[in-house]
Amino acid sequence: MFNKRTLAIIKRELKMKLFSKSFILMTLLVPLFMIGIFSVQYFVQSLSGEQRSDLIVISDSDEILNKVQNEIFQTGPFKSGDLTTRFEKIELANFKSKLNEFKPDILEQRITGVIFIPSTLLQSKGVEYYSSNPNNSSLFYKIKPSINKALVEIYFAGKLLTEEEIKFARKDVEINGFRVSSDEKVAEEGYGNRIAMVLFSFLLYMALIFSGSMTMNAVVEEKSNKIVEVLLSSASSTELMAGKILGTVIVEVIQMAIWLSPIVLLISTSWFLIPAEFMPQMSFGFILYFLFNYAIALITYVALYATVGAIFDNPQDAQSGVWPLLMLIMIPFFIALGMEANAQSSLAQIASLFPFSSLIVMPARMILVEVPLWQILLSCAINIVVLLGIFKLAGKIYRIGILLTGKKPKWSEVFGWLKMSA
Amino acid sequence: MNVLEVKNLTKRFNGITAVDKASFSVTEGSVFGLIGRNGAGKTTTIRMMLNIYFPDEGEVLFKGSKIEQDFKDTVGYLPEERGLYKKMKVIDMLLFLAELKGKKGSDVNKSALQYLERFDLADRKNSKVEDLSKGNQQKIQFISTVLHDPDFLIFDEPFSGLDPINTNLLKEIILEMKSKGKVVIFSTHLMEFAEKMCDSIAMIDKGKIILNGKLSEIKEKYASKNVSLNYQGNISFLNSHPMIESIEDYGNTTGIKLKNENSDQELLKLLMANNISIKKFNVDEISLHEIFVLLAGKEAANV
């Protein structure tokens, strides 16, 4: 499979791609694009906090209303005018009819919502919120501490506690994460690794889809402009496919190494001043693993994309044939993102060993937690076995598909090709 | 001596037999024509000869052993549907295709430039293929077929889609290769080309080889007792004449098969006596087209 012809094809791919405008452009644009996406997200998040809220606080107790009012008046959003509140005292039995009065205002968003703090629920700190958008976490973030403080004070009033004791009771639990790893160093965990996880997963996801569809289009083009028959009179279809895929993999790994070079500098030098909480804890070895894993993922997915390209003879049909592959990349990507909550869940563990998904999930998981070495090796072994299998199947479909033109083949026909002698 | 032997080649696609037990052989230094209608199985046969398709049954032997990569390296192939990498530079394209055949270095480079010179394309060597006219792209394709100095040339419907200049150019290449002792194999549905250029032929119809051998021998065999006639008038009186075996209308000529070898002069007299105006009267002469119609049936007359 690897011989002078494969080499000639690899050389052509490198020559055409590595020095092309689109390679240089992509190498520069993707980091900018990533920065763009993260800043848009940050911007959207900060915008949502700035929105004006008009609240009505209702209770059957003057004490509650007064205390809550005192606390809210001291908050930043109230002082800056982002939050306005009205306080109304109502008997519990009349609350429903009162709420109905407010309904049109709520629906037309003249008021953001109604907060109902009945004195009967003081002990359980149960507070009800009525709004057209009842899951407004940025609003809760602003008012929850004030309400909590007021309720705590009312509850402990007259219980002869010192100010310090009340302060303690009022305080929420704070959990600081410390990463325990085998190198005996217990380091306090910041946001750095979580950001890095999202960044790396996203990079992997994008690069795979992008290089996959590029290769697919190149194969469709070779097929539709008929060069492929000339090539096949010199090289076998396996050599052709291997050369094409390996050429792509070399180019893409070089590109990924360029993208990762700032991160390598970040973790190995002190050239960049980054707040400790955003500093990812990452070893150089991980970067190498990441590139290795990327190469395997590329071969696997690019082979599949090339096969889809070989089945169809125009880009439109090929696009429609590509969705199963997209699923194979997207599902692991979302599993990886979901691991932010818990990277040791059984789903995360299985997905980081399972064929295809481990290519994306394992690196993400390794950023978040220390994965036992045997799991890493096992996932690599599984991926390499799957890759060899894919290469064989893909080669067969490629061989037959590449010369068929005309009618769009059915999937059942494609499976039939696997049984044919070629 | 036979350099290439095709034995019982069979290929099926989705239950349809495209090539059915095709056997023929190609002798050294000859021009060989694979002749048949569109869809008869010519391209599939050629692809099996090049190991692009694996046959379901049968084999192709090159100097007595099954074809392998070393055979591919000695072949220059011009497929019916021609194609090049559009974004590549002309010279890079040529050198890449030669490298796939295992030829690289300054010799190939020099030879590529010579060919470009000969085809008036030397000044375009650094142009992208897509910037060339269609005719010039065809020339690049011809060069790529012969650049690695192959021993075999396989052309699939070489004259389809060529302008008259390139048609002549390609004929020139074929004759030049023949004079160098190379084997030229081409498929075509154009009988007159095959008739003019081939030493041997195989005729394929509906996947089956219906005729194969040296063109001169085939013609000799089918021409005896045959009169090829061009005329004006009504010859229906011949239909029931005792000396006539059969009459076939091939469109522009009529083939008359006689029962007796020596009755051609008698036929001529008979035609004169019936006031038929004779434009052509050829004894023991038959065209490849006539043979094809004879074998493949009337529906083949429009080929």
Please report which band the strand proportion of chain B falls in: under 5%, 5-15%, 15-25%, 25-35%, 35-45% or over 45%.
Answer: 25-35%
Largest interface summary: A-B, 25 and 32 residues
Tell me about the biggest sheet of chain B?
6 strands, mixed
Q: Summarize the biggest pleated sheet of chain A.
A: 4 strands, mixed
Count of alpha and pi helical runs of chain A: 17
Helix content of chain A: 55-70%
Describe the structure.
- The complex is a heterodimer of chains A (422) and B (303).
- The mean pLDDT of chain A is 84.
- Chain A contains 17 helices and 6 strands.
- Chain A has 422 residues and is of the alpha/beta class.
- In chain B, 38% of the residues are buried.
- In chain B, a hairpin with a 4-residue loop joins strand 12 and strand 13.
- Chain B contains 10 helices and 14 strands.
- The model of chain B has no long low-confidence stretch (mean pLDDT 88).
- Chain B is 33% helix and 30% strand.
- Chains A and B meet through helix 1 and helix 9 of A and helix 2 and helix 3 of B.
Describe the SSE topology.
The complex is a heterodimer of chains A (422) and B (303).
Chain A: H1 4-18, H2 21-50, E1 53-59, H3 62-73, H4 76-79, E2 83-89, H5 95-107, E3 113-116, E4 128-131, H6 137-156, H7 163-170, E5 178-180, E6 186-188, H8 192-224, H9 227-232, H10 237-268, H11 284-311, H12 315-321, H13 323-338, H14 346-351, H15 357-368, H16 373-401, H17 411-417
Parallel strand pairs in A: 1-2, 1-3
Antiparallel strand pairs in A: 3-4, 5-6
Chain B: E1 2-13, E2 16-27, E3 31-35, H1 42-49, E4 57-62, E5 65-66, H2 69-73, E6 75-78, H3 90-100, H4 106-118, H5 134-146, E7 152-156, H6 164-179, E8 183-188, H7 191-197, E9 200-205, E10 208-214, H8 215-223, E11 226-232, E12 244-249, E13 254-258, H9 264-273, E14 277-283, H10 288-296
Parallel strand pairs in B: 3-8, 3-9, 6-7, 7-8
Antiparallel strand pairs in B: 1-2, 1-4, 4-5, 9-10, 11-13, 11-14, 12-13
